[in-house]
Amino acid sequence: MAAIQIFKTSRLFPATKPKPLLCLSSFSSAPSDQIPPEPNPLIPSVVSILTHLRSKSRWGYLRSLYPSGFTPTDFSQIALHIKNNPHLVLRFFQWTHNNNHNHNPLCTHNLLSFSTTIHILARSRLKSQAYSLIRDAIRVSEPLEVFQALVKTYRQCGSAPFVFDYLIRACLESKKIDPALQIVRMLLSRGINPGLNTCNSLVRCVMQARGAWAGYEIYREVFGLDGRVRVARARPNVQTFNELMLGFYQDGAVEMVVEIWDQMPEFGCCADVYSYSILMETYCEDGAMSKAEELWEEMRGKGVEPDAVAYNTMIGGFCRVGEIEMAEEFFKQMGLSGIESSGAACEHLVRGYCKIGKIDEAMLVYKDMVRKDFRAESLTVDELIRGLCGESRVLEALEVMRAAMVDYGFCPREKSYEFLIGGLCEQGKLEEALKLQAQMVGKGFKPNSEIYSAFISGYMKEGNKEVAELLRNEMLDTQLCGIVD
Prior knowledge:
Blueprint: H1 2-9, H2 42-52, H3 55-65, H4 72-81, H5 86-98, E1 100-101, E2 104-105, H6 111-123, H7 127-140, H8 143-157, H9 163-173, H10 177-189, H11 196-210, H12 212-222, H13 238-250, H14 254-263, H15 273-285, H16 289-301, H17 308-320, H18 324-336, H19 343-355, H20 359-371, H21 378-390, H22 394-408, H23 414-426, H24 430-442, H25 449-462, H26 465-480
Antiparallel strand pairs: 1-2
């Protein structure tokens, strides 16, 4: 509420009809909001020392003259006198903050001194330094209070409008989405547009935190597409549409991915390779490979060069539907185009080969991955273990699992243990199976009916009916107790 009151009491934004886009030079402050103009003999003295003495001597001299330090108001007045030397302002800020008097900093900076320094840095295009101070400010004060302080000091500091973009982005980085939205809405209500990248970041963060539809509503609001009569807004760009498409894809709203794609030409936006990749992935995940291929051809026809992500998308799509020859063709094209094969492309092929029972080919690709230091995902290793066990190559599968655990911390899933223990028991390697079962329990997996059945079958084949019967009874007892699934 405090930030809203600033507009009502200080007349920082005229109550008349907003001017098109930004007119922040019209910011004005009520006398009570300004840095007090009363002359203070300390101010010119400190300014003279800062501007005329060498760096090594100025700080010690200041410390000897003013051992008690400065008030935030003193600091702000001094900073305004040297605002054309923003690096000096920043050093003065840091010096007063880091040096102590009686265990207190030489200046206990508040929002006035923070905002003055931020504005001076922003107007001089010292963006990273200004952004860093804003992040510090919102750690100790509410973002709306920081916004209010920046508004009050804006005109006197001769600041730049993107200072508010920094504040919004700092809020988003700190997961303070609601304050970011409030600040954006207050700026928009006065015809002040946040930058396009800031708007895109806002849409993305809302989508990630609250879902695609929530982000879509913010997109319509910040770009003036929600039917309200306002001044002209920034126009969305291809990155905006990519964020929307990705959000809806991740939420499983396929129809909205297509709808967003169709909206791009209305705003004069041309899809880039990432746009194509998102829509192709949407089709691939649905198994609609003919649509994905048509989109690929359209992309090439429009002169949009595919990148690793686009190739990986198509390779993965064909592998999922078992069309491994097409996946191989795209993999080959990828290499001929000068794009190095990625771990993702190799993993798609490993899983694709396993899917159609070509385990030797899967092993060749997997070994190539290991040679290139690619780290396979758990799902890929699990699929390979399953495929090897299905061909009774259990020891080979066991070696794959152990090497992956040592090389990059692979954590086997329960199913992998089931395949391996089942295969070992089938081959009569019960001692090895028992060691693996102990490891499985040590990883926190409970024994289940598949594990019991594998050992029972193994002991029966060995002719050890006594142990088999004991295990059978144990399995029945644990099932009754709800231990075994």
